[in-house]
Prior knowledge:
Strands 1-2 form a two-stranded parallel ribbon. It is built from 6 helices and 2 strands. The chain has helices spanning about 1-20, 30-35, 35-75, 85-140, 160-170, 180-185, and strands at about 25, 145. The chain is about 70% helix and about 5% strand.
Amino acid sequence: MRTILKLSAAAALLAATPAFAEGVVVVDVSRVLGESAAGKSGTAQLKAKYDAQITQRNQAFNTAVQAYQTAANAAQAVKAPAQPTPAQVTAAQQAGQRAQQAQEQLQALAQEVRATEDFVRQQIIERVGPIAEQVRAERKADVVIPKGSVFAADSTKDVTSVVIQRLDAAFPTPSIALPQQQQQGAAAPAQPSQQPTQGR
């Protein structure tokens, strides 16, 4: 009797599984971010704004480090009992400070780039949500799940291409101006126009 009950329970579970599968559609978020017009536009904007800055700051950092190493080596090369001259010590200290400043500037830029990348992704995901809900309702599905959260899925349940098509039409271009940057721009006082004075 117990064996029969176990088999009946297993059969009921298997019978229920297809019904759940019918109620699921899948979206490949990585494809949305990489293939959508918004994703491509965000990437192009980031490259245009930051690539040259990153190169310049990397070069500035490398130059500052090399200058510090040269100054430090010159000071260390002095053999005891002689001591490095005050000028050598000062040069090494100043070079070290410049190298540290260059490193901080490079790190600050890298942090800004990461924050901007996250902001672009956030904008895209926020727009994908309502679109995915539309598709879910049209397909009469119960849930929409990201592709990365499942081991495998029927390709017929993948609605990524539909989502990308609708996203392209609704939101082709994200902003790369971080909210705090937008607020700073809005808060900047307008320059008063100078009107020519008329003589009396």
